[in-house]
């Protein structure tokens, strides 16, 4: 069970611990993934700095695209890790599993698929429509 079954019920300590372990595990995996991507990005930069002789526009463009891709990957991993950190904080303060938009419980099925979800499907769809 990832969330309270009904409004006003409390999650058991065993359930909370299970959720915390799952969230922390994913957070730790993302930390390792970030560290590996950061190392690869630094290696790419070192290679790029040492290998510029004879570069034409295509070479420069390729290196720029690779650098941009590496930076984008780092930002994506950091964003995902921040989502899991937020979920861990919400679990600690007792708000995990409750929608930040409307306050209703987030369906268990949604949290099983997307454990760091902070909104119910209705609020998420509403936000996406406003952003479009």
TrEMBL record:
Gene3D superfamilies, A to Z: DksA, coiled-coil domain
Keyword field contains Metal-binding: yes
UniProt keywords, alphabetically: Metal-binding, Zinc, Zinc-finger
Span of zinc fingers (dksA C4-type): 99-123
Family annotation (PROSITE patterns): ZF_DKSA_1 (PS01102), ZF_DKSA_2 (PS51128)
Organism classification: Bacteria, Bacillati, Actinomycetota, Actinomycetes, Micromonosporales
Zinc finger DksA/TraR C4-type domain sequence ranges: 94-129
Pfam families named in the record: zf-dskA_traR (PF01258)
Name assigned to this protein: Zinc finger DksA/TraR C4-type domain-containing protein
InterPro entries in alphabetical order: Znf_DskA_TraR, Znf_DskA_TraR_CS
Keyword presence, Nucleotidyltransferase: no
Superkingdom as given in the UniProt entry: Bacteria
Cited PANTHER family: RNA POLYMERASE-BINDING TRANSCRIPTION FACTOR DKSA (PTHR33823:SF2), RNA POLYMERASE-BINDING TRANSCRIPTION FACTOR DKSA-RELATED (PTHR33823)
């Amino acid at each position: 069970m990832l969330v309270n079954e009904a409004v006003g019920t409390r999650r058991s300590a065993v359930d909370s611990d299970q959720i915390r372990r799952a969230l922390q595990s994913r957070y730790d995996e993302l930390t390792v993934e970030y560290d590996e991507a950061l190392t690869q990005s630094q290696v790419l930069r070192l290679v790029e700095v040492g290998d510029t002789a004879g570069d034409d526009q295509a070479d420069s463009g390729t290196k720029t695209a690779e650098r941009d891709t590496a930076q984008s990957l780092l930002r994506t991993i950091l964003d995902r890790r921040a989502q899991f950190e937020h979920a861990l904080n919400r679990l600690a303060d007792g708000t995990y599993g409750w929608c930040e938009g409307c306050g209703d419980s987030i369906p268990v099925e949604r949290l099983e698929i997307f454990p760091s979800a902070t909104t119910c499907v209705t609020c998420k769809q509403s936000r996406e429509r406003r952003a479009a």
